[in-house]
Write a structure and sequence with these properties.
The complex is a heterodimer. In chain A, helix 1 packs antiparallel against helix 2 and helix 3 packs across helix 5. By secondary structure, chain A is an all-alpha fold. Chain A has a single domain, classed as ABC transporter involved in vitamin B12 uptake, BtuC (Orthogonal Bundle), CATH 1.10.3470.10. In chain B, helix 3 runs antiparallel to helix 11 and helix 4 runs parallel beside helix 6. Chain B is globular and about 60 Å long. The chains are: A mainly alpha, B mainly alpha.
Chain lengths: ~325, ~325
């Protein structure tokens, strides 16, 4: 019951904070322009928040490991590699000419294709475990990362600024036309996951137990990993590397809700990630005047809060 | 058995590493103590060799210990908030002491790393550890907090590219007067070996190890401090090098099981041989120029480790 109450509380908080985000500083003269900017931004935040929360919960359940986020699969590094590589090879002018839409589509396609290839390669053979998949993902991630940091060292500082903007998640330049495409993908994947919430509960008991209880383990894991890949690819291509958020929100949800049921975990971490993102964006805009990336604010406050929670808990 | 090959490889590669370089260095010259040759050896080649071996061994052993203590194969030695504190130190030295010599900057950053580690240990002591997973989790969170402070200021002062290139693994800057900090990590390595059996026990969980008569908290504290200090020293002097802390310990345990004392030598050797090999390759490919070690390790290591993983995976 405790979990349910807390979820209602979080929902109320999300509503209040979103309301603030939309209406702050509105007046009769600016409302139509401000709304046309803020509504898409809010939609983008909700989309990314939801997909990060879902993908991280699924991923931690599959791997049975609370410190992992899907970034272990190397998708973040691939994203940065694509962005840096494009600037490095074609120059920032050409990249700007392709525009956000083109960039988004190309990035999403490459990232999803990459993960499918990876999964195909690994699940084709019997007996490959998830542990093995993670190691391979980590190796590939490092591969992309070292190539991109090498390129970042070589390009001149002006070009680096273009890359640097891609290195931090940002909601300030989200394109409306992309949003609708991403909406379909993200919501579809989320619905599919939520339908399978009970299977996920069983999965969190570990591989052997899940098989004993009649779950087709390999098949389910493979499907869930595809869902994770889709969610992460879309949200990363939309706003930039954002998987760091997953670690924070999922662990906060676990501390708060104290449950293993995915019904609560999925919803709870989604709500918390909404709060973190909308609140963070609000602070980045109003308090910091856009002078710092949103990840800085979220990591700082969220991290402090997490440590506070642990300290408080151990005092009891 | 396998260790013997690794030792041989290490000796041969070390000799090669000393002899290869833009300036000619010959064994004959060294043997007859020609002055310029000895100078070259002492000023540049030897420091480089030592730092590579220490870095390779240190990082991979730290990874192994960290993974053993936390019983989690994905905890890299950099998760104890140390690197992020060191990074903050670099930022501070770049902003406030921009004229100081590199060694002073490194010292400042090392002091920060120490403070960060103490802070981490302090919080760890306060938090009741029901679960070893909380150790790395807490480390990551604290690291994120410190990193966000660093990012905030480096964003403001446009220092992000500067700091990330400082942390990019690089041995070409290692000459006399720039690497001596690394020597501190040698006694730490010995200490790690000395405590190896106790780390193995600690990895079995608090209850079990206390039953066996182990002072669990003390051992965990010692282990994490050793790991944190070694990684800080390596990262500050030579920069971040991929793979050493995560993949190498995992490969070794994949082949040899979880007995720490048995694994430490092979892990250390594999780390050193791998790093040395990559360094030599990086110096030879576009001779007389150099390719940064981070790139070579990242690319070559990916292929080697993928191959090893795949081969192991089919069995």
């Amino acid at each position: 019951m405790k979990s349910k109450k807390r979820i209602y509380f979080f929902s109320a908080m999300v509503l209040v904070i979103s309301f603030l985000f939309i209406t702050m500083g509105l007046n009769a003269n600016n409302w139509s322009y401000a709304l046309s900017r803020r509504l898409p931004k809010l939609l983008a935040i909700l989309l990314t928040g939801g997909s990060i929360a879902f993908s991280s919960v699924i991923f931690q359940t599959i791997t049975n490991n609370r410190i992992l986020t899907p970034s272990v699969l190397g998708l973040d590094s691939l994203y940065l590699f694509i962005q840096t590589g494009a600037v490095f090879i074609f120059g920032s002018n050409t990249v700007a000419r392709i525009g956000n839409n083109g960039n988004f589509l190309i990035t999403v396609i490459v990232m999803i294709a990459f993960s499918f290839l990876l999964f195909q390669l690994l699940f084709k053979r019997e007996g490959n475990t998830v542990f093995f998949l993670l190691l391979v993902g980590m190796v590939l991630g490092t591969f992309f990362q070292s190539l991109s940091s090498f390129m970042q060292m070589l390009i001149d500082p002006n070009e680096f600024m273009v890359v640097q903007n891609k290195m931090f998640a940002s909601f300030n330049n989200v394109n409306t036309s992309i949003l609708w495409i991403s909406c379909i993908g993200v919501i579809g994947a989320m619905l599919y996951t939520f339908q399978n919430r009970k299977t996920l509960d069983v999965l969190s008991l570990g591989r052997e137990n899940a098989i004993n209880l009649g779950v087709e383990y390999d098949k389910v894991v493979q499907r869930m990993l595809i869902v994770v890949a889709i969610l992460v690819s879309i949200s990363t291509a939309l706003v930039g590397p954002i998987t760091f958020l997953g670690l924070l929100v999922v662990n906060l949800a676990r501390e708060f809700l104290d449950t293993y049921q995915h019904r609560y975990l999925l919803i709870g971490s989604t709500l918390i990630s909404f709060i973190a993102l909308v609140g963070g964006q609000l602070m980045a805009e109003r308090v910091m005047n856009f002078s710092t990336p949103i990840s800085v604010i979220i990591n700082f406050i969220g991290g402090l809060y997490f440590i506070y929670l642990l300290l408080k808990e151990s005092k009891l | 058995m396998k260790k013997r090959y690794l030792v041989t490889a290490l000796i041969i590669l070390s000799l090669l590493s000393i002899l290869i370089g833009v300036q000619d260095l010959s064994l004959q010259g060294l043997f007859f103590l020609q002055e310029d040759q000895v100078q070259l050896l002492l000023l540049s080649r030897l420091p480089r060799l030592i730092s590579i071996i220490v870095a390779g061994m240190g990082m991979s052993i730290s990874g192994l210990i960290m993974q053993q203590i936390t019983q989690n194969k994905f905890v890299s030695p950099t998760t104890a908030a140390t690197i992020d504190s060191a990074k903050l130190g670099i930022l501070v030295s770049l902003i406030l002491f921009s004229n100081a010599s590199p060694l002073v900057k490194m010292l400042i950053s090392f002091v920060f790393a120490l403070l960060g580690t103490f802070l981490f240990m302090g919080i760890l002591k306060k938090v009741k550890l029901q679960n070893t997973i909380l150790i790395p989790l807490l480390g990551i969170m604290l690291g994120n907090i410190i990193d966000s402070i660093t990012t905030f200021f480096s964003y403001k002062y446009d220092l992000i590219q500067n700091i990330s290139s400082w942390l990019q693994g690089n041995f070409s800057m290692v000459i006399k007067g720039r690497y001596e900090l690394l020597y501190i990590s040698i006694p730490l390595l010995a200490l790690a070996f000395f405590y190896a059996n106790q780390f193995t026990l600690a990895g079995m969980g608090e209850d079990f190890s206390v039953n066996l008569g182990l002072n669990y908290n003390k051992v965990v504290t010692i282990g994490i401090s050793i790991v944190a200090l070694i990684t800080a020293l390596v990262v500050i002097t030579v920069g971040r090098i991929p793979f050493l802390g995560l993949i190498i310990p995992n490969l070794v345990t994949m082949y040899q099981g979880d007995h720490l004392k048995k694994n430490i030598p092979s892990t250390a050797l594999l780390g050193a041989v791998f790093l040395l090999f990559c360094d030599i390759l990086g110096r030879v490919i576009i001779f007389p120029y150099e390719i940064s070690i981070g790139l070579i390790v990242g690319v070559l290591g990916s292929f080697i480790f993928l191959y090893m993983l795949m081969r192991r995976g089919t069995r």
